[in-house]
Fold this sequence. Notes:
By secondary structure, the protein is α/β, with parallel strands linked by helices. It is 38% helix and 18% strand. It contains 9 helices and 8 strands. Strands 1-2-4-3-5-6-7-8 form an 8-stranded mixed β-sheet, sandwiched between helices. Helix 5 crosses helix 7. The longest helix is centred in the last third of the chain and has 19 residues. It is globular and about 50 Å long. The two termini are 25 Å apart.
Amino acid sequence: MTTSIAGAPVLLTSVQAPEVAARRGAVLVYHGFGGDKSQLGDLAGALADAGFLVVRVDAVGHGDRRRPDWDQVFSEQRWAEAEDETEAEFLALLTATAAEVPAIVDELVASGRAHEGRLGITGRSLGGEISYAAVLAEPRIRAAAPMVGSPEWTLPWPDSPHRHPERFYPVPILAHGAELDQFVPARYIRDFHDRLTPLYAQGPDRLRYVEYPGVDHFLTPELWRETHQRVVAWFDRWLTP
């Protein structure tokens, strides 16, 4: 079902009625850069089959609210000639998307489509980076599973999640990286995981990092299936009442 929540275009997916599925858990799902809420259908289906309510959201500037100047602002030529300025535009979309998560959660809770302690978030690439930022923006998120998304931003902005590792515990974090990732270097994810490890000493099972050797940002269909299965199991463990 396509609708709007707190001004954000969303696609709801569940086997049972949304209000029923939300009792098991609701999971916010964010697509990659340049994509939209119709993507990650395999993951949404797997989560729905496991009984969850899946809330796929168009990131700010994407999908039904795609920037009209997208092709100019994010052209390959502009990335090459004005990298920092273009990266700043990218980060502005990321931070604006994370900033609206509390309002989305407010409306989900008010409508009975999310419940205390049963809200998760995941996403791929840009969506993974939104997931890290949203954990800091919204304390009602109880589990996160960013996929090939970096907690460390390219520009030295103070809000970059990697600057605030002390604010993540006790939220269970499952992160995935790819050794040869040309867009999101795995070392950023790996290094952040290493920084989180001592902070999760009282609950080490709440933290997991998986890095796929010999593959790039786009993985393979087989690895995506494996990743999705692991993400579903993560939410099944940490959100199920």
